[in-house]
């Protein structure tokens, strides 16, 4: 029997980290695999609305609660001609997508994406192609999207049926331009100069934009740090965010280190903020560059990519990872990190939204269901609003091969807008339960606590087409309150949402 141990936390509503940014709960829709086609868009589906959007998927997205969606890629954007996805559908060209080895039909494009954003009430986050294209095409796209009318590109949009400008505020200046896999990869100097020029010119059209320069594709990239320093040296005053991307998976059966993946995310955030601030200091700027963590997730990158082996097929099954309970707990821990660091991570995107390393799965002509990772995101988006509080924590330690000793308890506390509090807590221990003691002294004598827990005796338990609700969060009644301290029993390997009313 595994040893039972306890951890203790205390927090005070007067001591805050930051307001939780609206953009922290972003997600991502790329033209990749079945994310768009038969994911969000399937005109022939029994639930499809007049715009071809699957209502069953829209309903799950409403429950998931993303606030912003990045589009159209990802690696895809680096070879994309945005005009292909506009105008009458019968005239749209089919093209080779070199990033994923498929054929793009362009039946879904910018106008359809904007309809999707309105249907889901999310903010659009639009990426421009700085791989095969550059400044002029980015300006054309911005003029098409945001200019009211009376010019070639804005009138073209109006002729396509969208009288009102889209008003897209948030733009990514390319995607992963440091990656050797990227179409049109650039050196840091080349990219930094391009990002600066594109950003400055885009602001001539619309000065109110929020612009994201590409940071490193992962903390493991050989140029990590040096890349951010050079890109920001070139573009510091013209951009608002630097991006970060991170995906995690267990390596060589080392599940203990996998459970502590958020340690890497913390170090990543430390490294990028330190580098950005160092550039700012050197430039004697009082401006702060924040992080857009615009791709994060668990991703089994070594798993077969599915139908990619069929060359140039349309919307094949690619990157369709099926997530386990352990994956969901690690995912929850990454979400906790984003909340803990939301003073500098002011935008983030769960990559991706449907079918492709996603919390929502669909079958063509069939049902849509929730993966295990759906639940931590949905609970964080619902209850993680307000102010993140400073938490003092004492936790037992766990030894990991990759990160050394780490806290068994990973947690964050949020003062919600309605006067309640929420603690998100992960017990990283794969074997031992943990008693979480919450000091209620500074919370005005509250004793009303509830807890929702996601765990399973089988760490590999998954939700599948055949068993869609195999893993769901359950009410955890194992809570006692005594002398101003709450005692909440956290099972081994669990994600927990504790509400204090
Ligand atoms: O999200 C899948 C891919 O991961 C994206 O296209 C790319 O930006 C990243 O490498």
UniProtKB/TrEMBL annotation:
Enzyme Commission code(s) on record: 3.2.1.55
Keywords from the named record: Carbohydrate metabolism, Glycosidase, Hydrolase
Magnesium recorded as keyword: no
Pfam families: Alpha-L-AF_C (PF06964), ASD1_dom (PF22848)
Catalyzed reaction equations: Hydrolysis of terminal non-reducing alpha-L-arabinofuranoside residues in alpha-L-arabinosides
Signal peptide: none
InterPro entries found in the cross-reference section: Alpha-L-AF_C, ASD1_cat, GH, Glyco_hydro_b
Domain (Alpha-L-arabinofuranosidase C-terminal): residue spans on this chain: 294-494
Family to which the UniProt record says this protein belongs: Belongs to the glycosyl hydrolase 51 family.
Self-association state and partner proteins as the record states: Homohexamer; trimer of dimers.
The protein, known as: non-reducing end alpha-L-arabinofuranosidase
